[in-house]
Amino acid sequence: MILYDYFRSSAAYRVRIALNLKGVPHERREVHLVKGEQRSAEHVARNPQGFVPALDIGGGKVLTQSLAIIEWLDAAYPEPRLIPAEPLARADAMARALLIAADIHPVNNLRVLKRLEAQFGADEAAKADWYRHWIAEGFTALEAMAGDGPFLGGAEPDVSDVLLVPQMYNARRFELPLDAYPKLVAADAAASALEPFAAAHPDRAKPE
Questions:
Q1: What is the pLDDT of residues 146-177, one digit of tens each?
Q2: Is 39 in contact with 50 (CB distance < 8 Å)?
Q3: Structure pTM?
Q4: How far is CA 117 from CA 60, 125, 126, 150, 153, in A?
C-alpha cells in the first residue's frame, strides 16, 4: 500500500493518522505541493484532481479524498472503528468531521490562498487573516458540538478527532488564539498524546 502524501497537507495528515490507528503497513511517497508536483502528469493520472492524499491499495486501484479513504479503511480494517456504527453517534461524528472537511478546509487550502493572491492581490498578512477567520468560524461551532471529553465524541477518538488534530496544527501555524475553544484544545491534547496521532505529525513526517 502506497500513500501519496505531503507532510503539511491536513488532508494527508488525516490519512496518516487513520493508517497508524489501524496499524496498516504502508509506504509514503512525498508529492511536494509547494513545488507543484501535484500537477504532474504522473500524479494527475493517479488522482484526476491533482490532490493529496492518494492511497494506492494495489490491483490498479487508487483511493482519493481523505474521508472516503478513512471510510474504506473502517470497512477493510474494522478495529479500532473510527466512524461509529450506531446511527446517531455516526451522524454526530460525521457532522463534526464534515464541519472541518467541508466548511473550514476547502476555503483555506493552498489553491484558494494562491487565488486570493493572484486575483485580489492579497498579501501574506491578508491571507493569514482570511485563514484565521474561517478556522475561528468553524471552531466556534465545533466547540458547541463537542462532547464532555476527553475526545470530541467521548471516551475514544473517532473520525472527528482524526480531522481535528490536523486543523489544530493549522490553527497554531497561523497563530489563531485558542482560548475560546477549551474542549477542542483538550481533545487535541488527548489525541496527540497517542502515538498513532503523534507519529503522523508533520514534524515527524517531513522529508529529511
A1: 999 999 999 999 999 999 999 999 999 999 99
A2: yes
A3: 0.95
A4: 38, 11, 9, 39, 38
- List for the chain the helix, strand, coil content (%; round to 5): 60, 10, 35
**68-85: average pLDDT:** 97
Domains in the chain (CATH in brackets) are 2-80 (3.40.30.10), 87-197 (1.20.1050.10)
Q: Are residues 13 and 200 in contact, defined by beta-carbon separation less than 8 angstroms?
A: yes
What is the rounded CA–CA span in Å between residue 157 and residue 38?
31
Residue 53 cell numbers, joined? 492524499
The pLDDT-based confidence of 208 (bands split at 50, 70, 90) is confident
Residue position matching grid coordinates 493508517: 19
